[in-house]
Amino acid sequence: MIAEGLSDVQVRSITNSVEGELREKAKVEPIRKEGINEAKWALLDYGDLIVNIFQPEIRKYYDLESFWSNGDNLLFP
Description:
Layout: E1 2-4, H1 8-26, E2 32-34, E3 41-45, E4 50-54, H2 56-62, H3 64-67
Parallel strand pairs: 1-4
Antiparallel strand pairs: 2-3, 3-4
């Protein structure tokens, strides 16, 4: 999953929200977490699910959408 936050605060907030929701509803904890302190990007690794949260310039730099071009593109409001 790839998501975007416009600032350090938003990246941290999205990361905390995703982690909290998955803990509460799916009873899972991430195997590994990266980048949360700097909050330019964050990664939550759940094994079968990897959540990437980027600020726009970092998202553009890594361009994971083209790397995972065979995946489903789901847009949430």
